[in-house]
Amino acid sequence: MVELHGLIALTDRWRPETHSFHLALGEMTITLEDIAMITRLPIEGRALTGKVRSDGWRQWIATLVGVEPEPWTHETRKDPRPSGVLFSWIQKHFRRCPKDASSGVVERYARAYL
């Protein structure tokens, strides 16, 4: 729960116009090294990307965040998300993490935004 309060405190202090956090001690910017430490992804060496496969992506999202995106049903427009979700979908399902959420639920909310 402490991590959730810390995350809320940081989001309240984020300034999109400068891409930084404004804290009592001054301004703080997130660096690539910070992201590497948080996500445990390497920042040196070969890129992690490869071929993007769009089949089965809805089930993969459901495995990661617990909610499967609805299939595209518009008859005249092409699906704008052939292998991912729209931010509006993330906001619809993960806008506010419940106050009494278990650590697993908090992890799913964080994963949805990452």
From TrEMBL:
GO terms for biological process: meristem maintenance. Pfam families: PMD (PF10536). It comes from the Eukaryota. InterPro entries: AminoTfrase-like_pln_mobile (IPR019557), MAIN-like (IPR044824). Residues 7-114 form the Aminotransferase-like plant mobile domain. This is Aminotransferase-like plant mobile domain-containing protein. The lineage of its organism: Eukaryota, Viridiplantae, Streptophyta, Embryophyta, Tracheophyta.
